[in-house]
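Predict both folds.
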Amino acid sequence: MPKLTVGGKTVEVPQDQRLVLAIEESGVHIGHRCGGYAKCTTCRVEFESGEPGTMTQAEYEKLTERGLFGQYRLSCQIVCDQDMSVRPIMTLESEGWTDTGSAPDPTITPDATVYSIDDLKQ
């Protein structure tokens, strides 16, 4: 099982669980205002280690549109398939929300077309 480190706490997470859900289950109230559809960027994280070398088309398009490509990743578009350490950017507490948003589905939505990050940077 992969290990996820977030907020100074390390937990084991199920293989291929969506990162946004794993972060929530670790006790961090990360944002997912759009319900995990790569539309809002409230689930963005910075990787401290273990950043995946692939990215969904939806994540690439949203990060590029918002000028965030290369700075952040969208946890709703990433699965936990290796050990990772992340820092959530927007949480219930930091933003003063009354809730974090609609619950994301267990699988990545929209359908994930995956690209190599190295190819996207070119």
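Second protein follows, with its predicted structure tokens after the sequence.
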Amino acid sequence: MEEVIQNKVQNSSLIALDLADFKNKTNIVTFDISELLWQGLVLKEKDFRQALKEKDWTVFHGKAVAILCSADAIVPTWAFMLVSSYLSENDIPHHVGSVKELEQKLILANIRAYDISKVQDGKFIIKGCSDIPNPALMMSELTKHLFPIASSIMYGEPCSTVPIYKRKRK
């Protein structure tokens, strides 16, 4: 008689979460203010405002934008605010900072959007290998998000986990 191999993990109540599943699916591009500086060094307000007014913002639809200045120039804060206002007006997700920072922000938004209402008292395993920026921060944020409803949280793979949290019995 042949013995049937069973996947005990699949048949268990464990909920495996991979940080890669929270990764941003949107293409991230940059808006580099340095391209609008006079001689690459100076921001002329009138010229800057005109360039933003004439900009085709539709090229950013369906994308997320990291607003930055790659030049070693002093750029007033209001310039970033002005770019942000145009992107906001066109409903384009954006962040002032690097592409990596924007990627982190979008992952955090996806973690916070994860619907925990359907997994009350869940036993979670957060997979440890992922190519996301700052995995320690992201895993901590996911732990914080799951904490109110989790009966347990573990780190690693189902075959080899490190216990992180187990709710105390009342």
